[in-house]
């Protein structure tokens, strides 16, 4: 496959108001491609693995940037950069889980331009799909990764359905753990989705990783005070500490009283197409001491139902160990 | 037709690939979002190293491409062209970014500093450049312009970083010769913490 240094020629829209962006997205429909920081987009277009007639660059819409405190939590504009999310003092004070997750995405330069909305809406990182092969996710009728010769070290353990690609996002598990709400707008109005429902697996929609429909824009992420100042644990394991996507990550929040877990959220990333909440572990540790013994007793449950592919079996003990460390930390 | 679509608003730019460059220099265009037949504006003025440079920019052109092939500023290197190496790092409003992964149309009205703009007006090298020479930081040198830009950005914000802070700040710049320790030594020397 040829490599290209430049993107093909196309139209570029740079609205500065969200209403204009919505009107353009509605009018262009499938001909338009929403761009936040562009760090996922440009590779697709340079590689000619996907194409579009027009880019709708959202980065100049100031109203979609920044962090605001509200009566019952915070609101983060979807175009807020990952660096801003990582360094924002309010997020650091109340939801350091998200600061940590945003602070380990890719590299400093990518975090300086990559946005929170883009990080949770980026496409899966399957090498076959990204090379433009006609796989299930690209509209074809086979999977190149889940074959005896397929390279699937980075792929999913759970809830595969024809496609076995995994969610690459570091911030998505943190948002699910924090019970965040995604605010989605279109020319027809606004709707909200729980973070967990924003992410869509291949059984429900094999061509999209999010619930965004044509013409819709993710404008805001709301985080309620439910988990403010809880005991947090985030860890990302990747081949290199910079650039590489998670092999497995864990984002966890615990409400601890007298050394016992009152309630918790434990969410793993990069083990399926969406962030995976391990509710069986959350239920098992409720009321138990938050310590190494409890962690040891429930760690194996974290991977109940896992189906390893040819080369990603290492993710099973890795995921168990990350869950164990989250609980015992 | 939805009434919202008929409203005329100012939008930052609508750039159509097929249209020829026009003579206007205004950044803001009145555009009719309904028809999409607004004037193209490919001729933009960029603020590069403190100078205003008029240039004809395609809609999907990256800043690295514009710098190297339209403005003849070839100090900025294109390594991977995918945001995975850091050789093309420039400062946009003082913030290090991969110029291969930024649209040129995104830096309209923003101050861009490339490696050519780091030295003083009289040609004196920047403290980072001098320190990199003193520490033999570059080997082949291809990643060096990007390394300089990341180091300059760090020291502008944090004149006396710890070694660990320097490693974090330089972590988005790959060096295939593996001269990382020499670059970090250079950063520490430039910050006056290494005699």
Write up this protein.
The complex is a heterodimer of chains A (329) and B (195). Chain A is α+β, with helices and mostly antiparallel strands. In chain A, 28% of the residues lie in helices and 21% in strands. Chain A is built from 13 helices and 12 strands. Chain A has helices spanning 18-28, 41-46, 82-87, 89-94, 96-103, 108-113, 116-121, 127-130, 171-177, 195-198, 279-285, 292-298, 315-328; strands at residues 11-13, 32-35, 54-57, 67-70, 73-77, 181-186, 189-194, 217-224, 231-237, 248-257, 260-269, 276-277. In chain A, helix 12 runs antiparallel to helix 13. In chain B, strand 6 and strand 7 (95-98) form a beta hairpin. Chain B has helices at residues 63-70, 127-134, 144-157, 163-169, 180-190, and strands spanning 8-11, 14-15, 29-32, 43-48, 51-56, 89-92, 95-98, 111-113. The longest helix of chain B has 14 residues, at 144-157. Chain B contains 5 helices and 8 strands, in the order βββββαβββαααα. Chain B has 2 domains: 7-117, Ubiquitin-like (UB roll) (Roll), CATH 3.10.20.30; 127-190, Orthogonal Bundle (DNA polymerase, domain 1). The interface between A and B is large, with 41 and 42 residues.
Mean pLDDT across every amino acid position of chain B: 85
What is the total number of structural domains of chain A? Answer: 2
Parts with pLDDT < 50 across at least 5 consecutive residues of chain A: none
CATH topology of the largest domain in chain A: Uridine Diphospho-n-acetylenolpyruvylglucosamine Reductase, domain 3
Helical stretch count of chain B? 5
* Assigned CATH superfamily of the largest domain in chain B: Beta-grasp domain
Number of helices of chain A: 13
Mean pLDDT across residues of chain A: 97
CATH C-level class of the largest domain in chain B? Alpha Beta
Cα-atom Rg of chain A, whole angstroms?
Answer: 19 Å
Residues in helices of chain B, as a percent range: 10-25%
Low-confidence stretches of chain B: 1-10, 18-40
Strand percentage of chain A, roughly?
Answer: 15-25%
Q: How many E strands of chain A?
A: 12
Largest interface: A-B, 41 and 42 residues
CATH architecture of the largest domain in chain B: Roll
Q: Could you state the order of secondary-structure elements of chain A as H and E?
A: EHEHEEEHHHHHHHEEHEEEEEHHH
Biggest sheet of chain B, strands in spatial order? 5-4-8-6-7
Span from first to last CA of chain A? 47 Å
């Amino acid at each position: 496959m040829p490599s290209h240094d430049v993107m093909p020629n196309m139209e570029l829209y740079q609205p500065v108001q969200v209403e204009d962006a919505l009107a353009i997205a509605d009018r262009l429909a499938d001909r338009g491609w929403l761009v936040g920081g562009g760090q996922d987009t440009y590779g697709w277009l340079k590689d000619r693995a996907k194409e579009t007639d027009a880019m709708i660059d959202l980065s100049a819409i100031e109203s979609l940037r920044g962090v605001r405190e509200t009566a019952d939590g915070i609101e983060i504009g979807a175009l807020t950069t990952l660096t801003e999310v990582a360094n924002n003092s309010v997020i650091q004070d109340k939801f350091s889980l998200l600061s940590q997750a945003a602070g380990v995405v890719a590299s400093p330069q990518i975090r300086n331009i990559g946005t929170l909305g883009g990080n949770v809406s980026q496409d899966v990182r399957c090498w076959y799909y990204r090379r433009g092969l006609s796989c299930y996710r690209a509209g074809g009728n086979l999977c190149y990764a889940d074959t005896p010769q397929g390279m699937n070290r980075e792929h999913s353990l759970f809830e595969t359905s024809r496609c076995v690609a995994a969610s690459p996002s570091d911030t998505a598990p943190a948002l699910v753990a924090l019970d965040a709400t995604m605010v989605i707008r279109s020319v027809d109005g606004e709707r909200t989705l729980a973070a967990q429902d924003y992410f869509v697996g291949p059984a429900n929609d094999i061509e999209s990783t999010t619930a965004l429909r044509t013409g819709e824009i993710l404008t805001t992420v709301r985080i309620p005070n439910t988990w403010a100042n809880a005991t947090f644990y985030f860890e990302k394991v990747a081949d290199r500490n910079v650039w590489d996507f998670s092999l497995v990550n864990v984002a966890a929040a615990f409400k601890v009283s007298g050394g016992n877990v009152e309630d918790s959220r434990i969410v793993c990333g990069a083990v399926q197409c969406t962030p995976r909440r391990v509710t069986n572990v959350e239920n098992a540790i409720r009321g138990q001491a938050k310590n190494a013994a409890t962690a040891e007793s429930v760690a194996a449950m974290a991977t109940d139902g896992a189906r390893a592919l040819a080369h990603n079996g290492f993710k099973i003990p890795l995921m168990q160990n990350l869950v164990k460390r989250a609980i015992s930390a | 037709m939805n009434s919202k679509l008929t409203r005329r608003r100012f939008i930052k730019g609508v750039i159509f690939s097929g249209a020829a460059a026009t003579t206007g220099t205004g950044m803001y265009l009145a555009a009719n979002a309904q028809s999409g037949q607004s004037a193209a504006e490919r001729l933009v003025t960029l603020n590069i190293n403190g100078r205003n440079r008029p240039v004809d920019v395609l809609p999907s052109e990256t800043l690295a491409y514009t710098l190297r092939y339209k403005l003849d500023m070839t100090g900025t290197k294109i390594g991977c062209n995918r945001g995975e190496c850091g050789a093309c790092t420039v400062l946009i409003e003082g913030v290090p970014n991969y110029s291969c992964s930024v649209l040129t149309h995104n830096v309209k009205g923003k101050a861009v500093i490339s490696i050519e703009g780091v030295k003083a007006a009289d040609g004196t090298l920047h403290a980072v450049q001098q320190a990199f020479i003193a520490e033999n930081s570059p080997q082949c040198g291809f990643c060096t312009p990007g390394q300089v830009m990341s180091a300059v950005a760090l020291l502008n914000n944090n004149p006396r970083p710890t070694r660990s802070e320097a490693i974090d700040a330089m972590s988005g710049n790959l060096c295939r010769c593996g001269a990382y320790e020499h670059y970090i030594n250079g950063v520490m020397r430039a910050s006056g913490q290494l005699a």
